[in-house]
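Review this:
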Amino acid sequence: MSPMHFSFYSAFTFSALGLAFHRTHLISALLCLESMMLSMFIPLSIWTVENQTPSFALVPILMLAFSACEAGTGLAMLVASTRTHGSDHLHNLNLLQC
């Protein structure tokens, strides 16, 4: 395994561990999700350039578009939960109280 592949795998793993263990604030969960998407986007875009496959050139752009939609939805949920509950702590959010 090359050092570049190792760095991408470790970035994704650390982001997933951050999402699993640091779940106190919604903004930290959103940042971990964004870093996971970024750690998948960079190798995917490098892979299409290295292999020179024009048919897969739109895949990183499509993934980046979905990531932007996910970020916008997450920030909208953050603003809505902060307005209704007063904070962005995840322990305040309960689906049974809706």
In short: The mean pLDDT is 86. The domain at 3-92 is CATH 1.10.287.3510 (Helix Hairpins).
